[in-house]
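Example 3.2
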Amino acid sequence: MANILESKEDLYNLVSFVADLKDNKVLSITDEKKLKETVIDDLIYTAVFSKNEEVKDEAKRLIRELANEFGAIPSSIHDFYMAMGRGEVDNITTPAINIRGMTYDVARQIFKVAIKNNVGAFIFEIAKSEIGYTYQRPSEYASAVLSAAIKEGFKGNVFIQGDHFQFNAKKYAENPEKELESIKELTEEAVKAGFYNIDIDPSTLVDYSKPTLKEQQYHNYINTAKMTEFIRSIEPEGITVSIGAEIGHIGGKNSTVEEFEAFMEGYLTEIPEGMSGISKISVQTGTEHGGIPLPDGRVAEVKLDFNVLNDIGKVARQKYGLGGTVQHGASTLPDELFDKFPQNNCCEIHLATGFQNIMYDLIPEDFKNEIYNWIKENLKNEWKEGQTEAQFIYKTRKKGFGPFKYEWWTLDKEYKDKIMEALFNKFEFLFQKLNVFNTKDLVNKYVKPVKIPYGKLKG
């Protein structure tokens, strides 16, 4: 079990065993072996679980400095996607993985797969909603990912992404500026933490009652443009943050090429000439986040329209020079579908619930029941009319990661090992299907790591 430190002095003493420090800043690593074996465990457990907020923040800063010196560098995938837009890279779909619980251990499995199979194109992400219910602010999430990279010995670009930084339609209707400001605040917090990939999502503001496609997309493209300008104004020197946009709200009607072109026409007139814009476009193809649970708790099969990905992706690349389309809500799809994504101009795929399902399937029954009882007691207002208990639990158990974070992180080794083995196998299977094996050199050709200090913005 890792140690949780409660003073800055203890932190500096710990780090001094593996690094040269000057004014409590990391100058160089002196004992990589010891850093990987024990020190990084104590640092990340302190960053997540210390009772002292100042100590937690100092642990996060030290992790970032150690990661920079170690060679695990937070990076933007923007230039790699631009290479896709130019036709220099093809038939690759980057997996973007949302980790809701046991982030350090789960990220370790992803890095293990990456090292074993020479993978460079992969993303760690967390959505605005997940930041809330999993109790993981961006600085904590980035720290867990970078600590996992150090632990496993991964050196190179580490892509960390803010997923679905989504506008709330109701709040926007009441006060557009206030809602925009809240997305800006979250984005700034994320960029400070090393999230150099941000998916802006005002697709919730699309108004299908308007007569023309451009009018329907107006609040979507204008806010995407405002966020693009804001991100470009704060991104650190040497970094072009990869910005994703979205034209169809996931779970809604399928997107069309015409909608995409209407969005882009509006968006490109709103951003300043010469400014780097978005690198990819999320579309709706028939999926829903987490899948659709049946009354017995099983997940319904989904009809996914690959033509949407392919047709919009083709226009995205050939007309606008973007990386392609992005598929959300995909982790519960049948295994045999995943090799189709690289063939259909899909540059990125978002995966979350399938990994959560593995975790819940393999934890001890008494722990599972404890979480489920907590959900039934504390989230009963989310139990919709007509839902069976199995459906209600399936839809809400993602909210069992935050309140039980420590219990998840400190599961008995027997159970943790089973979960991690199952996740490793799933990640490796998906990475192979998505054609990202042996992409490290290709990614490195286009993305050059830039060492940015913790908390640093432009200037």
